[in-house]
């Protein structure tokens, strides 16, 4: 079975080809145009998708060695995401499905991030716990099956990825800044400075407070002090941002008894978070699963993987299906 998958939820134009569930090609075209604005400009993102879509699809087909005529299904991201960006991907997917006379499959972007853990040979069995951490989402999810996921907790304000990028912007590191903080933190002391960690009930998270505290801290420092202490500042704020993730996951492992844990979303690429998750796995006698780096950030391989389960159940979408910018897990 051959499937072409499309992902355009934000500013990455991505296309993947899968054959019998195996990813044959997984290409992403990133929109560097947003760097000068310190964040994604939605209108510009949709226009860039329009420019890139055909080129990326053609390159993905060529890289896979699969001919267009052999495609048996088209998958695309229905939501959540930027409205204009989603519409570009959906329109292209519908056109392909109609032209090739093959089924169309709409996929939940966040569910796809979680199911990216099932790509490859080393993957968890159901049920498993998953931390979903990205620029727009921070959730702790109990994954009982491919189509049965329970959100145990989520952020009440900002996502951890957004907090990383905001702190990087305050430091003048540019956008996206999460990776830069991670790199600088490797040579810093995480205990040099103390930043607040919100104490939320249950499994929920909050990151607005630490962002505000970080802004006030930086405003109170001299430029030379910031430059001299930059590595330590990054290590310290990273510690504050990651601490509640590990703490909540540890409680969930104890209370649910689930001993398989995973990480998904763009922040899953953070080296410190990966190391802390591995340490937690050793401490709690859990098996840890983290996607390859190419499946952490937005990509179409994960969209295709999620769509494969739907294809097997003939859960196809009509051509008049709409995109849903605020689509939630389980809907």
Structure description:
This protein is α/β, with parallel strands linked by helices. It has helices spanning 42-64, 83-100, 109-115, 160-170, 178-185, 208-219, 223-228, 230-256, 271-284, 300-312; strands at 2-7, 12-19, 22-30, 73-79, 104-108, 128-133, 138-145, 148-154, 260-264, 287-289. It has two domains: 2-114 and 295-312, ATPase, nucleotide binding domain (Nucleotidyltransferase, domain 5); 124-290, Nucleotidyltransferase, domain 5 (2-Layer Sandwich), CATH 3.30.420.40. α2 (83-100) links the parallel β4 and β5. A five-stranded mixed sheet has the order 3-2-1-4-5, with helices on both faces.
Q: How are the strands of the biggest sheet laid out side by side?
A: 3-2-1-4-5
Question: What name is given to the CATH topology of the largest domain?
Answer: Nucleotidyltransferase, domain 5
Helix content range? 40-55%
| Domain count | 2
* End-to-end CA span: 26 Å
**Strand pairing plus helix content: what structural class?**
alpha/beta
Average pLDDT over all residues: 95
Number of helices: 10
CATH superfamily of the largest domain: ATPase, nucleotide binding domain
Q: What is the CA-atom radius of gyration, in angstroms?
A: 20 Å
CATH-derived architecture of the largest domain? 2-Layer Sandwich
Uncertain stretches of 5 or more adjacent residues: none
For the sheet with most strands, the description reads: 5 strands, mixed
What is the class of the largest domain in the CATH system? Alpha Beta
Strand content: 15-25%
How many strands appear in the DSSP assignment?
Answer: 10
The helix/strand series, from N terminus to C terminus, equals EEEHEHEHEEEHHHHHEHEH
Note the overall shape.
Answer: globular
